[in-house]
Every structure is written in structure tokens, then in C-alpha cells.
Design goal:
By secondary structure, the chain is α/β, with parallel strands linked by helices. The chain is 13% helix and 14% strand. Strands 1-3-5 form a three-stranded parallel beta sheet. The longest helix has 9 residues.
Length: 148
């Protein structure tokens, strides 16, 4: 088999119907649009979700959910397993994480340390928020968690 022998499957490619190209084509004159009326006109038809004047489904159903992003507290969330790359006794804060490329930008509410993973280093972590499991694992490793 050669590349020039490859063809689409039978019926996969259908020639487009050329409308409005004379009476002999069978689709001349009204160009498959019928006679007169809204659908025969240029730009005719109704907008999406129009249901003939009755109350549309999108307005009949109630609004659901509320996402108050305007007042959301956005933190830089970091798991404690990230701190294993540092040496014992290091003081780690959001500036250090930015410098080392662990986080890309500083969020409005600062740093939140999550408790996923294990910590083997005795480090001092300064953050705005800690989860309970994160504090437990930091203290178990011999480090300290300082809330800013």
C-alpha cells in the first residue's frame, strides 16, 4: 500500500449541495427554502432558545448555585513534602518559595501549608495558614510552624 492509494471510506465524503444555480440543478429558484415566510428571507429565523413566544425553558427553570469569587480568600497552597528540599534549620517563607521557583506569584492572602506527604527536615515555616495535619507533621519532624 502506498500513500497515494489511501482514500476515504465509502460515503465519508459527501459533495455539498449547490443551491441557487439554475433550474436544471433541481435546487434553483427558491434554493430549497420553500415559498415566502420567515425562513425564506435573508437573515430569517428565530434566535436560539426561542419557543414561539411561550416562556423559554431557560427562564422557567430556577437559577442554581452561587460562587462568590469576589470575596474569595486565595492562598498559595503548598504541601509539606515540598520542604524536604531544604536543609535542617532553614527558615522558609513565601519570599523563599518565590525565589526558588516553587510558586510563581504571591497571592493576596499569602501562603497556606497543606499536610499532604511526609516531612523529614527540621525547618521553620512561616505562613499565613496551616492545616491541622500540616502542623502535626511539621512538629513531628522537629520543625516549627509560625503563623504570620
Amino acid at each position: 500500500m502506498n500513500i497515494q492509494d489511501i482514500k476515504p471510506a465509502e460515503g465519508a465524503k459527501v459533495a455539498t449541495k449547490r443551491v441557487g444555480r439554475g433550474i436544471g440543478s433541481g435546487t434553483g429558484k427558491t434554493s430549497t427554502r420553500g415559498h415566502k415566510g420567515q425562513w425564506a428571507r435573508s437573515g430569517g429565523g428565530v434566535r436560539p432558545n426561542f419557543e414561539g413566544g411561550q416562556m423559554p425553558m431557560t427562564r422557567r427553570l430556577p437559577k442554581v448555585g452561587f460562587n462568590n469569587k469576589r470575596f474569595a480568600h486565595v492562598y498559595n497552597a503548598v504541601n509539606i513534602e515540598v520542604f524536604n528540599r531544604y536543609n535542617d534549620g532553614d527558615v522558609i517563607d513565601i519570599a523563599k518559595l518565590l525565589e526558588d521557583g516553587i510558586i510563581r506569584k504571591s497571592e493576596n492572602y499569602g501562603l497556606k501549608v497543606m499536610g499532604n506527604g511526609e516531612l523529614e527536615k527540621k525547618v521553620v515555616i512561616k505562613a499565613n495558614k496551616f492545616t491541622a495535619s500540616a502542623i502535626q507533621k511539621i512538629e513531628k519532624a522537629g520543625g516549627t510552624a509560625e503563623v504570620l
